[in-house]
Amino acid sequence: MPYRDGMRARSEERRAEIVRAALEVIAERGYRGASLAAVAERVGLTQQGLLHHFPTKEALLVAVLKERDRWDAMPDTAWRVDLLAALVEYNAMRPAIIQTFSALLGESVTEGHPAREYFTERYTRVRANMAAVLRAEYGDRLPNGLTPERGAPLLVAVMDGLQYQWLLDPESVDMPGAFRDFLALLGEETGEESGGERRREA
Questions:
Q1: 35, 79, 104, 126 — which has fewest CB within 10 A?
Q2: Please, which residues have CB within 8 angstroms of residue 143's CB and are 6 or more apart in sequence?
Q3: Are residues 167 and 175 in contact, defined by beta-carbon separation less than 8 angstroms?
Q4: Could you give the CA distance from residue 18 to residue 24 in angstroms, rounded to a whole number?
């Protein structure tokens, strides 16, 4: 491997290591309580060494949020209502990531928070995506009579709200099960009674 390529690869590995450490520290302390010094210490760097890779705390936050989006990336056309339940089950297997996301989301509602614009834009995009998913599944009206546009904010709210309840008391809150219950309220057959197969009448 040429020297320059080797240096670039090592730099990318170090950046990924820093992002993982930042995820841990933010999950533990929240964004405002997470210092660059704490992240640097966790990866065995000085703060100056960390600044070589991420010149500001805001730049590191952006990298953390992009990494989270990368893990969840899926073409919009691949989403179906029944696959959302699979996503909730997947999230239940990675509490550290969900904790970090939830901590940042809670803090971002305050004025001047560097993640506020990210989450505002994200929710605009997610609501539109969920409306498209619901329309593809049910047409212009859900079985309960709501339009996809009215159902989409409720769907997103349940997914993210369940995460908070689950993080606070995972022994009492069955996040995947509760989400399947919500899908049943929408009119979606969850398939539990038929071995996981969907049971929709033609």
A1: 35
A2: 186, 187
A3: no
A4: 10
